[in-house]
Amino acid sequence: MNFKSKKFYIGLFFSALLIYLIIHQLDFSEMAATFKKCNPKMLLLAVPVYFLSYITRAIRWKYLMMGKENYKVPTLMGIIFIGYILNSFLPARIGDFYRAYLAGEKFGTSKVTVFSSIVLERILDGIVVLSMLLLSILFFFHQPWMYKLAFSVAALFGGSFILVYCLFKYSNTDVLAQKLKNFCLKYPKIFKDKFINFLDNIHKHIKSFITGFEVVNSPKNLSISLLATACGWTIETFFILIIIHSFSGLSIGFPAALLTMCLGVFSALIPSVSVHAGPYQYAFILGLGAYGVSKEIAITIALTTQFLMISFIVICGLIALVRYHIGFDNIKDVGTKLDKKEN
Predict the structure, then answer these.
(1) By the 8 A CB rule, do 215 and 243 touch?
(2) pLDDT of 152-188, one tens digit each?
(3) Which residues pair with 99 in a beta bridge?
(4) Is residue 286 part of a domain?
(5) Domains in the chain: how many in total?
(6) Which domain holds residue 269?
(7) Distance, CA of 325 to CA of 198 (rounded, Å)
(8) What is the CA radius of gyration of the chain?
(9) Cβ atoms of 57 and 80 closer than 8 Å
């Protein structure tokens, strides 16, 4: 069994476990009654709000790649939509790899450098959403298990950012590569040439990867990236709040939507099958349940939120695929290349 198969079965296990916990003793008649109370006009209002969050994502990505003029926000948005549509339905975050491939082809940039900017993007998401979660806990909701979650996530994303910073600021790959080459000179020529070519190739990719973290050395670009990240997740909180208020009888406010949004984001860290089935819905049960919302209503809101998000991503992703004349055969070819590199 290869790594991908193991990852799939682990994700399947967690999804199945959480789905069982969700549907156990679930009152489907209450869910049906809740759906009937939904105001479609309010849901339509949520769509342009959600669109705004993708504008901030594209702006953030532009400045993570040092704000170069050829990185146009509309083009970056299209690439993001394509990546997200693949992430929604395919395992192993293949959409992130394809985003890096497509952006590298589009802008003539190293694909490894672009991918490292996407890695940094994920780290900034974690840091900003963690900060929001801490604010939610400190000012609105106090529970011991929340503090444990916050500190665990802080260790993960805070440590990741420190590692990225140290890699860019203090790593000297040229010196290390030269020392390894000098060591290889002791080998017979038949081995020496192969080792040196291998080292040159590895060194080139490592340098490209570290170059993608250049933004940590630019206070202006890093500040704009952080601000855009904060704006994006604040907008997404309002998106969830609008959906909550589209169901009549619910009077909970921004703090509940903020807590639910944060838990929904961190639920992506749990292995699962496509569309985060299980962890995402359970996050809504925990977040809204903390404010007295029943499991049935929380699940209804979670499913509605996810349906809107995925429908929006699919429509915009398909439009972007048509716009850039990208067929599914092209995506499959890129996936095959990635598999070969892994093997």
Answers:
(1) no
(2) 767 777 777 777 777 666 666 666 566 666 666 666 6
(3) none
(4) yes
(5) 1
(6) 35-342
(7) 36
(8) 22
(9) yes
